[in-house]
Amino acid sequence: MKLVGVLTFALVVWMLPGHSEAQPAVPLATLRVAGASAAQQAPQPQIVESAAVKVLTGLYAQQFQEEMNFITQALGVNCNTCHVRGNFASEEKPLKLTARRMLEMTRMINKQFFPDHKPKDGESVLGRVTCYTCHQGEQTPKLPPGH
Ligand code: HEC
Ligand code: HEC
User: Fold this and answer.
1) How many angstroms separate the alpha carbon of residue 133 from the centre of ligand 1?
2) Which stretches of the chain score pLDDT less than 50?
3) How far is the CA of 147 from the centre of ligand 1 (A)?
4) Residues 91-115: tens digit of each pLDDT
């Protein structure tokens, strides 16, 4: 999948040391090239760290990317629904802030009610209840029939 490849490269570049929110957005074409060489030079997995990552902390880049893919699929949206193009750390889009509240809520539900569920490989690190549990592919979960 081409798009996922580009996004992965974007993630790799975004993780490079020295990157900060203050830097100007880099065009995607540049990201792809820079990302390819960065991936070759960086065999060590890196933990995703950013001032704008407040809930999904302590994850490796690949895990983090997977969580973003889960969210995207669970809501039937794309990355740009929540993210400003070229600047994933930006908090400009209100849906990103709503999504963070939802991350907090989901984490709390799991902690309180499903503490024994240990996510397997390929499952969301959030736990038994995920965005999909409620959203089922819709940006806004359905109301019950008759509403
Ligand atoms: C429904 C909203 C939503 C969608 C869709 C979404 N994200 Fe995110 N993304 C977030 C939130 C919320 C955070 C911050 C998480 C936190 O605070 O722990 C985030 C953080 C990130 C970050 C970290 C940015 C930084 O430097 O702080 C990256 C990179 C990222 N997302 C990539 C993606 C990619 C790639 C996609 C598409 C596959 C995607 N996101 C789809 C909501 C979304
Ligand atoms: C326990 C059920 C539940 C879970 C789990 C859940 N959500 Fe939601 N979410 C809702 C409901 C209900 C609404 C609609 C709230 C409203 O009508 O104002 C909503 C609304 C949203 C919205 C705003 C949609 C819009 O169109 O305004 C976003 C974005 C969102 N959720 C993201 C997420 C993400 C990301 C996750 C996983 C981290 C998640 N949600 C997990 C129930 C849930």
Assistant:
1) 19
2) 1-2, 18-36
3) 32
4) 999 999 999 999 999 999 999 999 9
Name residue, tokens 């030079």.
Answer: 41
Tokens (6 digits) for 146 = 């008759």
Please give the structure tokens belonging to residue 111: 């902690």
Ligand sitting nearest the alpha carbon of 125: 2
What is the whole-number distance in angstroms between the Cα of residue 62 and the centre of ligand 2?
A: 24
Q: Which of 54, 68, 114, 134 to mutate to test the pocket of ligand 2 (most atoms within 8 A of CB)?
A: 134
Residues in CB range of 19: below 8 A, 6 or more apart: 13
What number of CA atoms fall less than 13 Å from residue 7's CA on the CB side? 18
Q: Which residues of 97-113 are buried (b: 16+ CB within 10 A; e: fewer)?
A: eebbebbeebbebbeee
The tokens for 93 are: 């889009």
* Tally of residues, the chain: 147
